[in-house]
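Journal club prep — side note

Before the paper discussion, L.F. wants everyone to see what a predicted structure for a comparable chain looks like in token form. Sequence:
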Amino acid sequence: MTKIFDLQDIPENLLNNVGGKARGLNLLIKYGYSVPSGFVITDIDDDDDFDSVAQKYESMGFGAVSVRSSASTEDGNDFSAAGQFSTFLNVNGKEELKKAIKDCISSLHNSTAEHYTKMFLNSTSSQMTVVIQKMVNARCAGVLFSKAPMRRSAALVEVVPGLGENLVSGAVAAQQYFVKNGQVEQMPENSLLSHQEAIQIADGGRKAQKLFGQPMDMEWAIDENNQIQWLQARPITVEESVNVNEFDCEIDGENNVYTMGNIGEVIPGAVTPLNISTNMYALDYGIKATTMEMHCAPKDTPPFFYISTYYNHMFFNMSNMYRTSHKTFGTAKHTCDIIICGHELTDYPDIDMKDDSFIKKLFHTIPLIKLVLSGESARKGMDKAISRLKFDLSKDMNTIYKQILDNFELFKKIHYYHYCTSYYSGGATNILTLKLEKHFEDRNQLQALLAGSLTQIDDFESANVLRMMKSLSEEILRDNPQAKLYSSADLQDYIENRASDVVKTSYQNFMARHGHRGIREMEIRSLSWNQNKKSFFKTLKSVISSLGQESKRAEKSWTEYADELLSACTPTQKANLMKYVLKARKGVCYREYTKSKVIYALDQYKQAYRKLAELMTDALILPDVDAIYFLTQEEVGRLLSGDTHLIKKALARRRIFPQLEEMKFPFVTLGIPEPLSDENTNSDSVVYHGTPVSRGVASGIARVVRNEEDASELSEGEIMVAACTDIGWTPYYNIIGGLVTEIGSALSHGIVVAREYALPSVVNVPDVMSVIHTGDMVTIDGNTGMVYIDQRNS
């Protein structure tokens, strides 16, 4: 027999059985909110039950009503099934009411709702309660999020004229009001709400968030008497709690200096949750482990203390990096700036920290010296760690995941060894900077000459990528001159099936040494050349096409740069400092070698996670392979253990990821980095200044390169404009005329390669990808760091 209760009179022992919508309305009434009158019905079985409901309706004298589902699986704490069940508005009269109730109940078993319940809730059953409420004659209506999905510390009020159903259905575009600290950030034109009404609605949401104990999604309407009526309250679900700040670093960073320098080249753009929780965590660990050896890190240093994440983008926390200069000898704020950012951050403060005593600084400097001298031992440590990294991908899902966890400490150690070699190379350049800066009024000139002294280094790892690729291209053309006309797909078919043994051997040798490299290689979601042959052969085709077209550049020897660098020194000083120049050159080899090994280790993780995702997809645990990249490492384990609500969380994160990828940030900020607005990223200026890192002057047509497709369009002599010096772009260095990037330094991996090809390069040009357009005629000066737009592409 059916049960009928007024909304305010639902028995306490039935609240968990009447569904989220009815439960939420009952609590709103108890908390003092104005809610339209109504009642709930349960357990309808026969015509007598429908007649009872009709009698209740008539006795209430409602007239037009809304008939809404309140299923037991709907509007819960973990998931909302909103939209899966039926809603009927402006229902008038007994017969219309009966039909609406029947249709509402039958929606419990529609295919969409049943699929939702089974896949996301791991359940096959649900119970339906129906809520009947007096219709509100709404002036306007909308939705309130007590915590805005895409805005830090603000409530979001969305409103449309008339019924809120126009908003839910998407039939009418909503006005948005972001309310923060009791103020509306910006009132829209032709506003449907007054400033005070927007604040009152937001205050209602904040009150509900406190009463319900979690962020809330609430529907509301303003009636003909300008009174706010509350129509629904449900917890913001797992999907909706996903937002652009979900993975923001928890460190108090309001007074810290952050930069995209260095890290923005290592991993440009937005980073997936899986990469943050694995590779970026290990990267931060590598720095933390070295600073702890020097006693420069605080006790219980939290994760992401040095490399921090905001909006899924990575930043160096420079303020925490500056700690070393107050606790050791031989380091300084400005040299830390130069090593990480490529230039001194004169407009940004040092950390407010008292220097340690002389004895303490001396004590801390001893392990710093050991790190600076650890190049060879770190290389050997890296080789040993790599040899111990083992995965058996023939195993089952749980075993592969256990291997991933078991290898993680080793993976963190691999990052540590890379930072040890970075200290070796950075230590030498740091000493040279400190010793020589008094001889240079312009520190950019000092850095440019130091960069020139680090050219023409024999066969270091990153430059070898292009050398071996060119050698393979030459072998291909000797074997088959027609290959120059092949598409990338035809080229792949030829090499794998029809090429000579010499070509196949050359190809196999390349893939054995460099197959773990690729575009955006430090992102776990980005496949290496071994895993993505299409990407490799597209790059190889470009190199083959460029043979014989290489830009001819006057090349100055590294010794000439070194002589100019040390020209103000006495013979004794010059002999002594030349040792550090040689040490810096050797350090480049160490650093590039260990960087390649880090990428190799990450590629092992890429393959392991890819295989795990395939097995989880086959087992219907994941909806598709790509979804795994939007879970953290810990969440993957929980999903394997049956925590199915994480599926929807992964899909929600993937849906907002393109927005994160579009975000751009200032190169340096004081306080937590915030995305640049469009008006901040464009300029009418035609002269820009950056950091010179590879000497020479070049003029040519600009080509803005954002992805692999853009790079494949590069022609001889063009000026490549990019966000950073991704190692995947280096095969194009032998044809372009010059290079300009938004981020970089003299020791950037890609810039080291650029110098090997005497490629004029300027880095750290803010927003250059926005202000220079493909087709513009530009000139870059790698001696001064100036970039000129000579003529706009009309």
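L.F.'s comment for the group: The radius of gyration is 32 Å. Keep this in mind when we get to the figures.
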